[in-house]
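Q: I'm writing up a methods section and want to include an example of the input and output format. Could you take the sequence below and give the corresponding predicted C-alpha cells, formatted cleanly so I can copy it straight into the document?
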Amino acid sequence: MASALKEELKKWLNQLAADEMKDPARYHNSGMLFRLPNGLTVEPVLIRKKFLKWQDAHPEFPRIVFHGLRHSSATYQLMISGGDVKAVQGTTGHATADMLVNAYAHIQQSSRVELGKKFEEGSYAKSESPSPQAVPAAGEPTISMTALLELLKNADPEVKAQLRLALLCKIHHAFQSNYSPCRGFL
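A: Here is the clean output for your methods example:
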C-alpha cells in the first residue's frame, strides 16, 4: 500500500472513531470502511453523485463510471509491474489469477503487440554498420551468434525465407514432427 494512502486511511479511521465517540447511543457501526457520520452504510447512489460532482470539477480527466477506477488501477498496476499477474492479483483482491487475466486480457494483447514490434525491430532492423559484437574474434572457428544475428537482420527477404525453412527443418527433425517442410535441406 502506498504510504500516502496509508496515511489517508489512518486519518479516516480516526475520523470514524471520533464520529462514534460523539454519540455512541445513536451510532450504528455498519462495519463498512466508508460510512456516514452516524455509522450507517453509504448508499451507492451517494457515491455516484459525489463522483459525478468531482468529475464535473475536473474535466481534464476522462469521464468513467465509478467502478472504472478499479479497472484503471488494475490496468496501471499490470503495466508498471511488467505483467506480474500474481502481484496485481494480491493488491486487487481477485480470487484467482485467471479472473484477473480474463478481466484484463486487453492489456496482455497490447503487451503482445508491443513485444511483437520490438522483436521485429530487433530481428529485421537495418543498421548502417555492424555492431562490434557482430565481428567474430580472430581465429574463431565458427561465426558467433551475434554476428549471425547481424547477418540475418541485413539479409535479403528471400534468404530469410530460406533460412526460416531450414530452421523449421532442423526443428522438425529434433522433435520428429509429422510436418516436413524440409524438401532437400537435410
